[in-house]
Structures are given as C-alpha cells and as structure tokens.
Amino acid sequence: MKVTPARPELVIKFNQLPVEFTEEQGGGRTFELGGEGGLSFVVTLSKKSCRRLGKAAEDWPEWTAVVGGRFGEVLGPHRYRVESAGLINVLERKPKESTPEAAASLEPAPAEDASAQLAVAPPQAQAAEAAAAVPVRKTPSREANATQTAAPSAASSAAPIAAPGAPKNVHPFIKSVAPIPPPAPKRFRFNSRPIVIYRGTP
User: Residue 66 burial (CB < 10 Å; 0-12/13-18/19+)?
Assistant: First the structure.
C-alpha cells in the first residue's frame, strides 16, 4: 500500500505540575509526561509557559493544560521527544454539582398503604388538621438576637489567624520560576520646534 505523506502532531493534556524537571538555559523547563499504553513524552516549555502553569496552579484548585508539538527523537521504547512544544492553553476545570432535584429523582418513592388511601377522615378532623398545619410566626426575643449576634463573633475570634510572615508551602515547580517583573513605564518623546512670531515695527 502506498503511503500518503502527512505531518503528525501531538496534543497532550495534563492537570498536575511536574515534580521532577530540568532547568534549561534561558529559564525553560524540561519534564516528562506519561500517557496511556506506557507512552511517555519529553517536553520542554519556555519560561513564560512555566509561569502560566504556576499561576493556574495557584489560582485554581483544578485545571487542565494543553501542550502541542510534533513527534521528535525516539528516546527509547514508547518514549519520544516533543519538538517545537508549546503551551496551547490552560483552562480552569470546575467540578459538576448535583442539584437537589436530580438527587430527589433518584430516591425511591415510599410505598403507599392501600388502607390509608381508602380511609377518609371526618370533616371535623380535617378542619383540625388544616388549622394545625398553618405555621405560626414567632417573634424572636432580644435575648435570642443577642445570642445569635454573639455566636459569629465568638467563632471568628476562635479561628486561628496566620502570621503575616508565615512561610507557605510552595510547589518546587512554582518556586523555581522567577516572578514576572512589573512592566517598565513607557516614555514618550516629542520632537518640538520653537515657534517664532515676527511683528512689524509700529
């Protein structure tokens, strides 16, 4: 069968920062990503892309990064190097929340008693049950309001407060990448010429 020429490309997704990596010249990072079937890919990302990964890990509890490139050198069995690797995008991954209506629909309905369906209460009993079902609104007392107001303040005072200079547990991948410096102020230069006004003699 004749082979049609093509240009295969790779798209790799991952959601964890690499623990083991090698620092390259210029601030890049080289690490290895493992996939299904025992495949592994060696990827080298630029310093800017590594900053984006570190910021996503700090800002979002769950995220997904997409890296693209081409098949490169074969480093071993099922092990390849990704050429021209680049970070395509980093997206936040939000967990799916189950609604109360969906949870209630999954619960089995209670079995109804046939004798309860046939039994009919007298009119006086029905009126008494309807009167008892009407909710009675109670006005909270001053003591109850004071207790409710004092409860949050006591809980907030009991919560531990972290010291402003306390060290934080920073991932080694984020710690190794230098922070982005603030942009330098732009200076505008205008070419101006003096304006001379000639006036005639009186």
Answer: middle
